[in-house]
Each structure stands twice: as structure tokens, then as C-alpha cells.
Design brief:
The complex is a heterodimer of chains A (151) and B (525).
Chain A lengths: L5 H12 L5 E5 L6 E7 L10 E7 L10 E4 L29 H13 L9 H9 L1 H15 L4
Antiparallel strand pairs in A: 1-2, 2-3, 3-4
Helix pairs in contact in A: 3-4
Chain B lengths: L43 H17 L9 H10 L2 H14 L7 H11 L5 H10 L4 H5 L5 H17 L3 H6 L2 H13 L3 H14 L3 H13 L4 H5 L8 H16 L9 H4 L9 E6 L4 E2 L5 E4 L5 E5 L7 E8 L5 E6 L19 E5 L4 E4 L2 E4 L11 E7 L4 E6 L2 E2 L15 E6 L3 E6 L17 H4 L12 H9 L18 E4 L4 E3 L1 H4 L14 E4 L3
Antiparallel strand pairs in B: 1-4, 2-3, 3-14, 4-13, 5-10, 5-14, 6-7, 6-13, 7-8, 8-9, 10-11, 11-12, 15-16, 15-17
The chains are: A alpha+beta (151), B alpha+beta (525).
């Protein structure tokens, strides 16, 4: 492989030594640019109690370009589509090389606490979230129970 | 087209691998297993047709920016319902033909593109398959169906790594896969059973289960299988390659020497560069054979650079699928996850003998006058720098020369190749006689000019290399972006500091406050 940038080594070491509460990010044994991520659904959100699996990949020009992240666990959320793709500005045009894996994952956790139906990726979900928030939240809880909990 | 995709038709039950009118599919029903009922989303025949359509399309789908084909969109709609996803999986298992070189890749591509399945649907699918060691031992088996089931299990394992993978990986699934390794029946099933186990092992808990199970056998199945690594039967050779790789990288046996410590490297002076390769490519211990089992498009360059003169090497095709083999400079980037490889930029040129396309700048040129490559064929790759020509040949039959790459590049070429999922080939850089050496001009070989130290000849398993890296330390005054160089720059007018000159040269705005950068001042001036 192309020599691994120190930046990635450093971030990995720190993630291991000082993990972020509610988030686990473990690098793949064979690929230092690929992380298995598990985010706990935030308290007082419809995702509470769920464990959401994501994959995070650092592209060749990281940190000059953003990590690629997507949900592997199904989730009912206006900013996350059926393929698990996430609509989040810092993963796109608002990326800065000063951001890190940990800040990205914290932002995703925050997105779970505060869905933003005005900037939707999953249109049907966003629509319901706007016209009937309580039903949308019920759906989100139901999906969390069905797909994100190990019963 | 008169087909309504979302209509809830008459509720029905689908029988996996037993479409109507066919009795050739094995039915192994264990008494304790309740029959799984699936609500049909659409008619099975329709799904089967869509799957076959996609298979046909993948061969011609060469532009990543193209719109998704209609049949793929339709399949997505079906797979969006839980039972629809199961139907799509069942169809793939039933209809993807054994001989199609795109078969296994089509399964990975389709599953990767489909909406995410829930854990329940995945468990349902594995129950529907009625996996067991009996199934693998049945007197009559349908090779195609079993092969496809193994491919599907591998994809699911890759998608669900983590706690879900443990839940899905039942004793029966393990029994089913291991039985194929032990009975060594049908190399193509053994191969994909082994790959599926390797992917389940991405999750540590599964890895331990598999490792213990393998070691319980009187003779470790992988130790038996790795003996096929040099087989002239190309299907068994793949099995041997994967078994050896798994023993070196995943299922480590205490006391077994790693292959790179044993391999005889005398006379080999150029190999594939294990420091210049995308993450998932598997390289053999002698550095001359490579294989991809990931759904990304994996690439590698060799260790030897050519700048002038005329050079030739050969690639022996082991699998008939998509590989892009040719020449690349260091400016060519391996964007494996975007599907870009050798021949997909300004600085590389390649030939894909499966689709019969020459690749430069990600644009294909059809080469219809020669047949598609088959296992055992030899691709000759010649670069004549003074004449500005690259000439590919298949079994000695020359394709028309190409020269566009010389518009941008005159020197710094490496032998290089990219691999789609489940593809493998072997390189001859001149350490053994060529099969089809060019006869119309004098040429040199890498091996007579190359040089490698004993250290450079070691193809160390990636996990060992990564372990070494993770233990290395980082200086504290280093650049806060790359940690490679010393921080020495101040951004103006915002005044943020802590960046090196390499990083700042790539910035348009300050990483801390997003202010536009008008000037960069060095701290020492």
C-alpha cells in the first residue's frame, strides 16, 4: 500500500487510547484506512437504545478530502437514505482538514439527536417529518427497535 | 412496459432454487426446520429476468458516470421491501450461470447497490437456503446454485461485519461452508466457500470460531488446500492461492512458518510492489501473482521503473474476468472505491481482455479483432519508449499499437494492473522464459536490470506491517494536518498556525476559521 500517512496513524492511536463516549471506531486489521464504527443512539432521541453500525473510509488524499462514511444499519432519518448515505455538510463542501474522524463521528451522532428535514436526503422520510413529526418519530423508534437492537 | 413493480399481487410463497417446472434442484429439508414463507413482491420470473438483464449489462457498463440502467432501478424498488430483497437474492442464486465470467462480480455489485437488508431478512435468507453439512454432502448437488450461495454468503458477511455477522453465522452455516473445504468437491464451490469464511472472519468472534473449527479437523483443511497454489488447473490454483493467503493473514496456525519466510526468491529481481498497492489486493508470497476478492477495483505497480528503451513483460491470465493490465507512472492514482484503476487517467494505459477494451483516460477503445481472454492465455505488454508505442498481444497475436499516453508522459513507467472482484493473474517480468517474446524488435526485461535487497523481496503480510506502523511514534512539533513535516507556516490574514508548507500549499482557506488565505508566512522569517 502507499505508505500510511502519520496523520492516520496518529488519529488511530488516539481513537484507541481516548475513545469517544457512545462511539466505537475500530480500524480493519488489514486496511488501516477502513474503520468499523458503531454509534449508540443518543438519549432522548428516537434512536435511543439502538446500536448503529457504520463504515468509514479515508480516501487517498485524506485529510485534504473528507472521509467517506455510510450507515450499514437501516435507519429512519430524513438525512440518511436507504443505502445508508448521509447528508451532512462537513462530509461534503464544508469539510476542513482540521476536522478528524472523531469530529465527524460526533457530528453524525449530533445529527441523530437533531434531524434536519429541511435538507433531506430521504425525501419521503423528510416529508413525513415535516407534516407529522410524531408519526415520523414513531417510525424512527420502530425502525430502531427492529433493526438496531439486538433483542 | 406494462409491469407494475410495486403491486402487491396474489400472495405467494417462493421456493428458493426450485422455480416452477424444474426438478433438478436439490431439496434438503430437515424435519426440525419450519418452512420459511416469503410474501412474493413480484413474480419470480420477472426478478430472474431482471437479474439476467443486469448480468448482460455489466459487461457493457463501462462509464461510471452513466445513469443506472432501468433494470437496476427496478431491482432496487423490489429489494426495498424486506421480502423483495430476499427474492432478489434467491433469483441471483438460481439464475446466475456458472460459466459467465461476470457472475460472481455481478452478485457483489448487485448486493452492494441494493438497499440495506435488515438482520432479520439476512437470517431468513440463510434459513431459506437450509444450509447444513448434509446439504453440502448431498449425493447430487447443483454446482451453480451452491457456488452462488457461497458468493452471496461472502457478500452478506462483508456487509454485516460486527454483531450482526455473528448472529447470522450459525453453526449450520459454518458446517455448510467447512464441509466443502473438507470434501474438496468442485473447486469453484470450494473457492467461494473459502472466500465466504474469510469474510465472516472480518468479525473477530467469527474468526475465532472458524479457526477453532478448522484446527479440530484431523488434517487442517487449509494446509491441504494451500498445496494447490502452483496447480496448473486454474480453478484449483485459485483455491490454493486463497488458502495460502488465509493461512498467512487470517487463520494463523501457531508454529507454521509464514510463506514469505520459506519462499525461494533467488533469481527474482522484480516483483509487485507491496508498498505501492491499494488496500485489498492479495499478493502471493513471491510477489508475482495477485488477486482481488473485494468488490472495489484494486490496483498495483511493480517495483521496477523504466525510463528509456524497449521493455516487455507477460501476464498469465488465471481468471477470465475484468482486469486492466498495462503501464502506469507514479502519477496514476488508485481510486479503488470509485472504480478507477490502470487506464483510467492520463498517466496509465491498459488492456482488458475480458471486455476486449483498451483503456486510456477512462475511455475504452474496442478491440474486436481478437477473442476474449481465457484462463491460461498470455497477455504480452510491450513499451517502446523511443518509438512511442505500447503494443499488447494475446498469445502472440498483436493488437494495434497505441501512443496517446506519450502525449503526457515520456518516462517513469511501471508494469501495473487493476483487478475486479475475484480476478487473478500471474506476472512474468523475465525471471522465466517468455511464452511469446516480440520478434520484430530488440527488448529488455525488468528482471535482468532490476535489483532488490533481501528486505525488499519480503512480501510481509499486511497485518504485520500495520502492527509495526501503529507502534511508531509521532513528533510533537509536527504539522497538525499531516503530522509528517514540521509546522512552520502562518496563514495570513487570520494568523492561524501549526501547518507545514506541503499542506498549506494545498489549502485555499484556513482549516480552522475558513478565512481566505492571502499570504503564507514562514515562522522563521
Amino acid at each position: 500500500m502507499a505508505a500510511l500517512p502519520r496523520r492516520i496513524i496518529k488519529e488511530t492511536q488516539r481513537l484507541m487510547q481516548e475513545p469517544v463516549p457512545g462511539i466505537s471506531a475500530v480500524p480493519s486489521e488489514t486496511n488501516a484506512r477502513y474503520f468499523h464504527v458503531i454509534v449508540t443512539g443518543p438519549e432522548d432521541s428516537p434512536f435511543e437504545g439502538g446500536l448503529f453500525k457504520l463504515e468509514l473510509f479515508l480516501p487517498e488524499d485524506y485529510p485534504m478530502s473528507a472521509p467517506k462514511v455510510r450507515f450499514i444499519t437501516k435507519i429512519y432519518h430524513p438525512n440518511i437514505d436507504r443505502l445508508g448515505r448521509i447528508c451532512l455538510d462537513i462530509l461534503k463542501d464544508k469539510w476542513s482538514p482540521a476536522l478528524q474522524i472523531r469530529t465527524v463521528l460526533l457530528s453524525i451522532q449530533a445529527l441523530l439527536s437533531a434531524p434536519n428535514p429541511d435538507d433531506p436526503l430521504a425525501n419521503d422520510v423528510a416529508e413525513l417529518w415535516k407534516v407529522n413529526e410524531s408519526e415520523a418519530i414513531r417510525n424512527a423508534k420502530e425502525w430502531t427497535r427492529r433493526y438496531a437492537m439486538d433483542n | 412496459m406494462g409491469v407494475c413493480w410495486c403491486k402487491d399481487g396474489t400472495p405467494g410463497e417462493i421456493e428458493v432454487y426450485a422455480p416452477s417446472g424444474s426438478s433438478q434442484w436439490p431439496q434438503i429439508i430437515s424435519p426440525e426446520e419450519p418452512r420459511i414463507k416469503i410474501h412474493k413482491v413480484v413474480d419470480t420470473v420477472v426478478v430472474d429476468q431482471l437479474v439476467l438483464e443486469i448480468l448482460g449489462l455489466i459487461a457493457s457498463f463501462v462509464d461510471n458516470d452513466e445513469e443506472s440502467p432501468v433494470s437496476l432501478v427496478k431491482l432496487h424498488v423490489i429489494a426495498d421491501k424486506e421480502d423483495g430483497w430476499i427474492q432478489v437474492v434467491s433469483s441471483m442464486v438460481n439464475v446466475i450461470p456458472l460459466e459467465d465470467p461476470f457472475g460472481p462480480s455481478a452478485i457483489t455489485i448487485l448486493l452492494d447497490d441494493c438497499p440495506l437488508p435488515s438482520k432479520d431478512s439476512v437470517i431468513k435468507v440463510t434459513k431459506l437456503f437450509r444450509l447444513s453439512s448434509q446439504r453440502a454432502k448431498a449425493r447430487e448437488i447443483n454446482v451453480r446454485v451452491e457456488r452462488n450461495i457461497c458468493v452471496v454468503l461472502g457478500c452478506i458477511a462483508e456487509k454485516l461485519a460486527g454483531p450482526n455477522s455473528v448472529a447470522v453465522f450459525t453453526d449450520r452455516t459454518l458446517d455448510y461452508l467447512i464441509t466443502f473445504l473438507i470434501t474438496r468437491r468442485e473447486p469453484c464451490i470450494v473457492l467461494f466457500a473459502l472466500i465466504a469464511l474469510e469474510k465472516f472472519a472480518h468479525t473477530t468472534e467469527n474468526k475465532l470460531t472458524i479457526k477453532q473449527r478448522l484446527e479440530k479437523e484431523a488434517e487442517h483443511p487449509l494446509l491441504v488446500l494451500e498445496r494447490y497454489a502452483d496447480s496448473e488447473d486454474y480453478m484449483w490454483r485459485q483455491v490454493g492461492f486463497c488458502a495460502k493467503w488465509a493461512l498467512d493473514n487470517v487463520f494463523i496456525i501457531e508454529g507454521r512458518k509464514l510463506s514469505y519466510e520459506l519462499v525461494d526468491m533467488s533469481g527474482i529481481n522484480v516483483i509487485l510492489n507491496s508498498q505501492d498497492v491499494s488496500e485489498y489486493l492479495k499478493i502471493s508470497c513471491n510477489g508475482l501473482e495477485a488477486r482481488c476478492d473485494s468488490y472495489s477495483f484494486e490496483s498495483v505497480r511493480c517495483t521496477f521503473q523504466v525510463d528509456r528503451g524497449c521493455w516487455y513483460y507477460e501476464a498469465i491470465i488465471i481468471t477470465p474476468g475484468v482486469m486492466q493490465i498495462g503501464w502506469a507512472t507514479k502519477n496514476s492514482h488508485f481510486l479503488n472505491h470509485e472504480g478507477y484503476g490502470i487506464g483510467d487517467d492520463l498517466f496509465s494505459l491498459s488492456y482488458d481482455g475480458c471486455r476486449r477494451l483498451m483503456w486510456y483516460k477512462a475511455k475504452p477503445t474496442p478491440m474486436n479483432d481478437i477473442p476474449a481472454w481465457q484462463p491460461g492465455d498470455v497477455l504480452g505488454c510491450l513499451i517502446d519508449i523511443p518509438k512511442r508505442e505500447v503494443v499488447f498481444s494475446l498469445n502472440g497475436l498483436e493488437l494495434r499499437p497505441c501512443n496517446e499516453i506519450f502525449d503526457t508522459t515520456r518516462y517513469g513507467f511501471f508494469a501495473a494492473a487493476s483487478f475486479m472482484a475475484f480476478q487473478q493473474c500471474r506476472f512474468n517480468f523475465g525471471h522465466e522464459p517468455f511464452k511469446y517474446p516480440p520478434t520484430d524488435r530488440p527488448f529488455s526485461t525488468f528482471n535482468e536490470h532490476g535489483q532488490l535487497t533481501d528486505e525488499q523481496k519480503k512480501v510481509v503480510p499486511r497485518r504485520i506491517y500495520l502492527e509495526q506502523l501503529r507502534c511508531s511514534s509521532v513528533k510533537e512539533d509536527s504539522c497538525t494536518l499531516c503530522f509528517d513535516d514540521t509546522a512552520c507556516c502562518i496563514l495570513e490574514p487570520c494568523g492561524h498556525r501549526g501547518f507545514c508548507s506541503v499542506c498549506t500549499s494545498q489549502l485555499k482557506e484556513c482549516p480552522m476559521c475558513r478565512a481566505e488565505i492571502l499570504n503564507i508566512r514562514r515562522e522563521d522569517t
